[in-house]
Design goal:
10 helices, Serine Threonine Protein Phosphatase 5, Tetratricopeptide repeat, mainly alpha
């Protein structure tokens, strides 16, 4: 009985080993197949880039040339070739400034400077270029927000306040204006230490956005500022 049991266990071990071997082989061949597909994709991408370049080179006046430049910038961006992407977006804005896609290229370029190349000053410059040249572009609102955020990250609080205020003035109907209003008040209170202005800004939030989730916190902050004033008077 013991011999039968041992033989049975040995047979199970061999079967499991065979299955493992077969599975490993299958996985390996799948990997090889995927590798081939990746290589095909790389060749396709290279061919794609070559054809877009041909459009730009041979038909620069065509309606397709600015789109080709934008797509070349985007392709390089997707694959992490950020410097190359920036160059394509620069060419796009320079050669075809009146084309609507140039605005999108500027936004993408600013994002690259901000998020990938660690060049915040260039990001701000490019966002402002987009804001000035393409005020109707769909990315302009976000560009304004990004400029303000960069100033906050660099602790340039006065510039951040101006950038946030510009958003409130230009986009009073946007959903996040109450968030921005509260942020401005907090900067005056905690960063610039201008309590009287902070109190005014908290009050503006309470009056302008009575249904905002920030109202209770703003009321609390305002009460603390008033209490601080009373103590100073004593």
């Amino acid at each position: 009985m013991k011999k039968i049991t041992i033989l049975f266990l040995f047979a199970i071990t061999i079967i499991v080993a065979c299955n493992k071997s077969e599975n490993t082989k299958t996985v390996f061949h799948k990997a090889e197949k995927l590798e081939g597909e990746i290589l095909k994709s790389i060749n396709s991408i290279a061919e794609c880039k070559t054809k877009y370049e041909k459009v730009i080179r041979e038909a620069p006046e065509s309606e397709f040339a600015p789109i080709a430049l934008y797509k070349l910038g985007k392709l390089n961006e997707i694959f992490g070739h950020y410097e190359e992407a920036v160059e394509y977006y620069k060419k796009l804005a320079s050669i075809y400034p009146e084309h609507q896609v140039s605005g999108e290229g500027l936004f993408n370029m600013a994002q690259i400077y901000q998020l990938h190349l660690d060049k915040p000053e260039k990001a701000i410059l490019t966002y402002n270029q987009l804001i000035g040249l393409y005020p109707e572009n769909k990315s302009v609102f976000q560009a304004n927000v990004e400029v303000a955020q960069i100033y906050c990250q660099k602790e340039k609080w006065e510039s951040a306040v101006k950038a946030f205020q510009r958003i409130l003035d230009k986009y009073p109907e946007e959903k996040i204006v109450d968030d921005i209003s509260f942020r401005i008040a907090d900067i005056y209170s905690f960063k610039l230490k201008e309590n009287s202005t902070a109190a005014e800004k908290y009050l503006e939030l309470i009056n302008n956005y009575p249904n905002s989730s920030w109202v209770k916190l703003a009321e609390g902050r305002l009460a603390q500022l008033k209490e601080g004033e009373k103590k100073n008077e004593k």
